[in-house]
Amino acid sequence: MSLTKDKAAIDQWYVLGATQDFPIGQTVATWLLGGDVTVTRQADGFEVTGEGRRLPIRTHYNHLWTSFGTPARDVFALPEAEEPDRRWLYCGGVRVAASGLRLIENFLDLAHFPYVHTDILGSEEKPEVAKYDVEQRRDVDEIWATKCEFLQPKAAAASEGGQISQYMYRVVSPFNVMLYKTPPTAPNRWDVIALFVQPVDETHAIAHPFMLVIDPSSTDAEIIAFQQMIFLQDKIVLENQRPVQLPLQPGRETPTRADLSSVLYRRWLKEKALTFGTEPRTDQVSDFA
Amino acid sequence: MNEDWTPIALSRDVPAGVTRAVRLDDRELVVWRGDGAAHVWEDRCPHRGMRLSLGFVRNNALNCLYHGWEYGAAASCVRIPAHPDLTVPPSIKANAFPAVEAGGLVWVGRHDAGTRPEPPEAVTPILSLGVDIDSLDAPRLDLDLPGGTLHLYWHRVTAGRIMLHAVSQGDVDPIHAAARVRHLRDELEQQVAA
């Protein structure tokens, strides 16, 4: 395995885990974009090395971020992290044998709720995906899907029964995404559920789900267990999609109206000329030919 | 034998309502059965690439696990649950291969496959068994057993591995026949190791 040459992928911030995942005084070996990375945590901070040099570090949102390149922007803003009554929950890293881009796309998907998260996030009796809005916000270079609605038998750990959940999705970089969802206990606010993806190589990723939620009653263990159950159901799908890498070539897959966010996400990746984690295309002459 | 057709499973092992994943020369196939004969398709939903072998059979149709897209026996998608009012365009189809059942086996054919296979009929299925060898010399081995004959078919899974499909003819003790197949597997793998 060696570090990718894909500049669009290199010039981004990537999560390596929640800071609490790294014990003080220890060195941890991990991977990013096909390259080896070493994280050492001392009492006074982190050191991350890769490709024989020290890499830049950020610790936004109690996560450790690094980059092999020179990102055009800092780690994305997450205003909800400033709100004092939110609970911060770290679900731990889950290794998935799939392209990290497949993880992001699955996270954006509503239509699988009745089949993959049956009787939890959706029910087979109500599989319809109502029209929602998608847009590429060019000022902040983010993808948003808004006005998403889905009838959910058990929307969250604190749910007493079914509800129509409102969702918004926000893709802040090719491998980082979050959703905003109406909590059962505070219908006027939004829970934030983020999926930070550490792309290990083209066909493996480590997902780091992170939550900023309003739920005064459930225990941490209950909320994390709920999220882990959902993610393990997704993992079964993610490891059985073919190809394992995300295809960007037209005609390889078949989007419908419910897949508008996926269509926009893929178009955005193409605009960025990102190829890491995508299926090699056969319909284009390579730039290096 | 003709090389247009390859045996990939025992018919008995694909009962009604069941899907099976089969690997043939590194291609991923799904074999499934609704009300009638077995179907052999590429193991991939055209929507998002999900393996259809993880799906479920209902109403003589194969449903994808990921989004419930429903494919009828002719491989056309007949229902997209996210859009209940949509008439699905006929262009949305699973990739189906020619398939026949004969001699207790499910056979997959090339798209231009000619005359269907005509193996010995009136057989009893014994078992399918993986063997870590690259190939056998003949498309079929016949072994004499007390009371009848053991027919051994095979397909290549990937380099260095085949799957044997054993059926018997005559009055053969199936437990004895299965033991004979396992013994043969051990012999074949030892020859490779030697």
Give the second-level CATH assignment, the architecture of the largest domain in chain B.
3-layer Sandwich
Q: Which two chains touch over the largest interface?
A: A-B, 24 and 22 residues
**Strand segment tally of chain B:** 15
> Tally the helices of chain B: what do you get?
1
Percent range for β-strand residues of chain B: 35-45%
Q: Uncertain segments of chain A of ≥5 residues (pLDDT<50)?
A: none
The total domain count of chain B is: 2
What about the largest sheet of chain B? 4 strands, antiparallel
CATH architecture of chain A: Alpha-Beta Complex
Summarize the structure.
The complex is a heterodimer of chains A (289) and B (194). Chain A is 16% helix and 33% strand.
Q: What do these coordinates show?
A:
- The complex is a heterodimer of chains A (289) and B (194).
- Chain A is an alpha+beta fold.
- Chain A has a single domain, classed as Naphthalene 1,2-dioxygenase Alpha Subunit, Chain A, domain 1 (Alpha-Beta Complex).
- Chain A is 16% helix and 33% strand.
- Chain A has helices spanning 7-10, 100-107, 113-116, 220-238, 260-271, and strands at 14-18, 27-32, 35-42, 45-50, 53-54, 57-58, 63-66, 87-90, 94-96, 133-137, 142-152, 163-173, 176-181, 191-201, 204-213.
- In chain A, a hairpin with a 4-residue loop joins strand 6 and strand 7 (63-66).
- The longest helix of chain A has 19 residues, at 220-238.
- The mean pLDDT of chain A is 94.
- Chain B is mainly β and 194 residues long.
- In chain B, 10% of the residues lie in helices and 42% in strands.
- Chain B is elongated, with a radius of gyration of 18 Å.
- Chains A and B meet through helix 3 of A and loops of B.
